[in-house]
UniProtKB/TrEMBL annotation, chain A:
GO molecular function, one term: GTPase activator activity
Composition skew (Polar residues), residue ranges: 18-27
Record's protein name: TBC1 domain family member 15
Rab-GAP TBC domain ranges (all copies): 377-587
Species per Swiss-Prot/TrEMBL record: Solanum lycopersicum
Top-level division of the source organism's lineage: Eukaryota
Compartment(s): Cytoplasm
Alphabetized SUPFAM superfamilies for the sequence: Ypt/Rab-GAP domain of gyp1p (SSF47923)
Compositional bias ranges of the Basic and acidic residues kind: 1-10
Subunit structure: Interacts with non-phosphorylated form of RAB8A; phosphorylation of RAB8A at 'Thr-72' disrupts this interaction. Interacts with ARMC12.
Lineage, top ranks: Eukaryota, Viridiplantae, Streptophyta, Embryophyta, Tracheophyta
From TrEMBL, chain B:
PANTHER family per UniProt: RAB FAMILY, RAS-RELATED PROTEIN RABG3F
Gene3D superfamilies the UniProt entry points to: P-loop containing nucleotide triphosphate hydrolases (3.40.50.300)
Pfam families the UniProt entry points to: Ras
Secretion signal, residue range per the UniProt entry: none
The name this protein goes by in its record: Ras-related protein Rab7
Source organism phylogeny: Eukaryota, Viridiplantae, Streptophyta, Embryophyta, Tracheophyta
Family to which this protein belongs: Belongs to the small GTPase superfamily. Rab family.
Any one of the GO CC terms: vacuolar membrane
PROSITE patterns: RAB (PS51419), RAS (PS51421), RHO (PS51420)
Species whose genome carries this gene: Solanum bulbocastanum (Wild potato)
InterPro entries (UniProt xref): P-loop_NTPase, Small_GTP-bd, Small_GTPase
GO annotation terms (biological process): protein transport
Length: 678, 206
């Protein structure tokens, strides 16, 4: 399971070919290259590839092409990716946009792994994951060269392939054992000394500051001794911040809007000034703030119903953000979010539900339905019917008879897939390790999933068996993804609500279309959400962001459980179902759960900062919040934050971040077993 | 920070899913066993005060998810560990065979300063199951493996019955302390000369 292959590349014919190609292409433009990078004293370009692109969004015209290089300097290898200048095909992208993504020199000692994707259709791409847990956006190799890229890296650093997933290569830079030793001790000066060979190619922008003044002094002393500047950039902690900055559309946005905003605000109580844009609808906002009446105001502001309101909301958001960027004004911002947040409504009942349906059973206004559920959830007895729409098992415009027909088809499809593993004989299973292992893992987990709920209680509970059957069937339906811990947590409430095995299965399938990447072998789904969360906290609670940065907590691993299973372990069973149906409406955002994270963190911000929690204490604190989170209050706060953040918030969330539907379904779970590459 | 090394001992429990990592931790810290533990998602830890001679230490015991797919989190969780506990289920050959992988993965991710001498302790858990009749990994086999990996201390435990759990964690704590002290050599301004090194001869079944 955990075995690693050490691949000897020398006897791989493909590898030899690719190396030959590599050296040819290098000779072709090697000269000009070296001239242009003459500042890199002693640096040798050991690989470069043109037309390696990143896709910041799904729009083709926003793709950014550039050159990927591997640079060897001293004993260490670094990677750079520089976008082309004046690229005509992307005229709509400013140079500034492109430079945001520029990767100047990342030493491989800061890289944790490289995940290779080789879809049958489309370009090959690689995702580089840093030691901090953050990842660069995927690099698409338009002209090929991914294999060669990995092969070159293999020459200079210790590259290990996980046998479990042939597409993941763990980077373990053992070139400099001293560095590893010293950095594991967390000596402030050690990192700088060890990394000094790469310092001259480090980027120049620095915003990282440490609170530990003494350590910083030591650090600078080392810098001066070596006669080098900008040493701090090689601090791995700094690196993660650099990375964050690169993707920070938000920062740019703030810069651009701030000056305009300040002109408008002219220094007097600009939050209320900004809010005046809303006053068309809401009368006097300032008086609302003063009276502190949390229930009265702004019912309509929350959800812009038409485009003119939307644009005023956007404007507001820009101003809002500029306000947040200004430290002096955080207090006002806090106040604002406290005032916002619509009171929760009673859950949707069957009488009201019937008003959403036409005579043939179509949902006429799905937007209105989703809005209604967003604010109140669904009554228990009605969940079975409504969840099928929310999860996407039924489409909103289907009729009663269409749904009935679909259900019967789906039922037999389910039985077919289920029979695939049901028909495996004992003899067959003996020779089918993967099946046995999956089955064992699932069986271990279903007996410890929600057993305190009466529905799953007791020995030989048939519902527990049903959980097992569905999960095992799913692992055949999606063999590449298989089974991963956490799935049983997601399935359990669905089976509880649906009752029916086949329907539960298909609802689970629909949910996994969105959350499947959470369970990928490289965990990229969770990592991208945690990355987006870090950006959202930076946007919505800058002091907390600064605190996490200072405490080296920007990987947000302490929120891992929240994100992986959508707060399943944080609320009781009933509350979890309420939260999920609200999240599944995707009403204000597909990513409301991330705003829920921000809301909870913000609520405890003063405690977190006041008690100077470090990573460990924070993780413990977050884990122990389980069962103590007020759902309604949190949802209101999350809603307010989501509206406040507006499009700036959405800009924090890279396209394709779960639960958004992935755009490359074919390669989503590509976990090839082949051994073609190294 | 300077005093952290000397008072906080960080221990990581690793092993396949369902071998009883959470149960062992809870049995040791809370003296409780439950059949209702959920599969661990992410990581969590419990702390317990332990005393050696005149000094008080906080043992911070980290419980992690057992599915190997979650290992990308290891970098963050294993950092600064003083001892690593490898757990297998004596009724599952696979969980025993995987010990080596867990050990190697730990060394890669935690990258301790002295991997050769980093303290591990191996626990063969669930010895109570079926009165030992379903056991598939013999003690001899387990001890042989431990011996081959630099004489790793080995205990056979039952988290359910509480068998040997206290003894195992005593040994774990001692080994963690050793490891912590050795690292202090690199931190001259924080070394506590008074810290006795007599624990090194502590009575683990090494």
């Amino acid at each position: 399971m955990l075995e690693f292959d050490l691949h000897d590349l020398s006897d791989d014919a493909d590898y030899a070919d690719s190396m030959q190609q590599g050296s040819e292409s290098m000779t072709r433009s090697g000269n000009s290259n070296r001239n242009s990078s003459s500042e890199q004293v002693g640096a040798e370009i050991v690989y470069f590839k043109d037309n390696v692109a990143i896709h910041p969004t799904q729009h083709a015209w926003e793709r950014i092409r550039g050159r990927l290089k591997l640079i060897k300097q001293g004993g260490s290898l670094s990677m750079t990716w520089i976008p082309y200048e004046g690229q005509s095909s992307s005229a709509r992208l400013s140079e500034k946009d492109k430079s945001l993504y520029t990767i100047r020199a990342v030493p491989f000692s800061d890289i944790r792994s490289i995940c290779r994707h080789t879809p049958t259709l489309g370009w090959q791409y690689a995702i580089v994951v840093l030691s901090s847990g953050l990842a660069f956006p995927p690099f698409y190799f338009y002209n090929g060269g991914l294999k060669e890229f990995l092969a070159t890296i293999k020459q200079y650093v210790f590259l290990v392939r996980s046998a479990e997933d042939a597409n993941i290569f763990l980077v373990n830079d053992l070139q400099d054992p001293l560095q590893r030793t010293l950095s594991s001790l967390e000596l402030p000066g050690a990192v700088s000394v060890a990394n000094s060979p790469t310092s001259s190619i480090a980027p120049s922008k620095s915003s990282f500051s440490r609170t530990d003044g003494e350590a910083l002094d030591k650090n600078s002393a080392v810098i001066q001794q070596n006669g080098r500047q900008r040493q701090k950039h090689n601090d791995p902690r700094h690196l993660s911040i650099q990375v964050l900055e690169k993707f920070s559309l938000v920062t740019r946005f703030a810069r651009e809007t701030k000056s305009q905003f300040l002109r408008e605000a002219q220094g007097d109580g600009f939050i209320s000034n900004a809010m005046k844009k809303h006053d068309k609808k809401t009368n006097n906002y300032s008086s609302v703030v003063e009276s502190n009446d949390v229930h009265k105001p702004l019912e309509d502001v929350h959800v812009p119903a038409n485009s003119s309101e939307e644009s005023s909301c956007e404007k507001h958001n820009k101003n809002e953000e500029a306000a947040m960027r200004d430290e002096n004004l955080e207090y006002d911002y806090d106040k604002l979010s406290l005032v916002w947040g619509k009171p929760r409504q009673p859950p949707l009942g069957s009488e009201e539900w019937s008003t959403f349906l036409d005579s043939e059973g179509r949902i006429v206004d799905s937007q209105a339905l989703r809005k209604r559920i967003f604010y109140g959830g669904v009554e228990k007895g009605l969940r079975k019917e409504v969840w099928r729409f929310l999860l996407g098992y039924h489409s909103y415009d289907s009729t009663y008879s269409e749904r009935e027909y679909l259900a019967s088809i789906r039922k037999s499809e389910y039985e077919t897939i289920k029979n695939q593993w049901k028909s495996i004989t004992k003899e067959q299973a003996k020779r089918f390790t993967k099946f046995r292992e999956r089955k064992a893992l699932i069986e271990k987990d279903v007996v410890r999933t929600d057993r305190s709920i009466a529905f799953y209680d007791g020995d030989d509970n048939s519902n527990v068996k049903c959980l097992r059957d569905i999960l095992l069937t799913y692992s055949f339906y999606n063999f590449d993804l298989g089974y991963c811990q956490g799935m049983s947590d997601l399935l359990s409430p669905i089976l509880y609500v649906m009752g029916d095995e086949s329907q539960s299965f298909w609802c689970f399938v629909a949910l996994m279309e969105r959350l499947g990447p959470n369970f990928n072998r490289d965990q990229n789904g969770v990592h991208s959400q945690l990355f987006a969360l870090s950006k959202l906290v930076e946007l919505l609670d800058n002091p907390l962001h600064n605190y996490f940065q200072q405490k080296d907590c920007l990987n947000y691993f302490f929120c891992f459980r929240w994100v992986l299973i959508q707060f399943k372990r944080e609320f009781d069973f009933e509350k979890t179902m309420r939260l999920w149906e609200v999240l599944w409406t995707h009403y204000l955002s597909e990513h409301l759960h991330l705003y829920v994270c921000v809301a909870i963190l913000r609520r405890h911000r003063s405690k977190i900062i006041g008690e100077e929690m470090d990573f460990d204490t924070l993780l413990k604190f977050i884990n122990e919040l389980s069962g103590h989170i007020n759902l309604d209050a949190t949802l209101r706060e999350a809603e307010a934050l989501c509206i406040c953040a507006g499009e700036n918030g959405e800009a924090c969330i890279p396209p394709g971040t779960p639960p958004s539907l992935p755009f490359e379904i074919t390669s989503m779970y590509n976990q090839q077993d082949d051994d073609d590459i190294l | 920070m300077p005093s952290r090394r000397r008072t906080l001992l960080k221990v990581i429990i690793l092993g396949d899913s369902g071998v009883g990592k959470t149960s062992l931790m809870n049995q040791y810290v809370n003296k409780k066993f439950s059949n209702q533990y959920k599969a661990t998602i992410g990581a969590d830890f419990l702390t317990k005060e332990v005393q050696f001679e005149d000094r008080l230490f906080t043992l911070q015991i980290w419980d992690t998810a057992g599915q190997e797919r979650f290992q990308s989190l290891g970098v963050a969780f294993y950092r600064g560990a003083d001892c690593c506990v490898l757990v297998y289920d004596v009724n599952s050959m696979k969980s025993f065979e995987n010990l080596n992988n867990w050990r190697e993965e730990f060394l890669i991710q935690a990258s301790p300063s002295d991997p050769e001498n980093f303290p591990f302790v191996v626990l063969g858990n669930k010895v109570d199951v079926d009165g030992g009749n379903s056991r598939v990994v013999s003690e001899k086999k387990a001890r042989a493996w431990c011996a081959s990996k630099g004489n790793i201390p080995y205990f056979e435990t039952s988290a359910k019955e509480g068998t040997n759990v206290e003894e195992a964690f005593q040994c774990i704590a001692k080994n963690a302390l050793k490891s912590g002290e050795e690292e202090e050599i690199y931190l001259p301004d924080t070394i506590d000369v008074a810290a006795s090194s007599q624990q090194r001869t502590g009575g683990c079944e090494c």
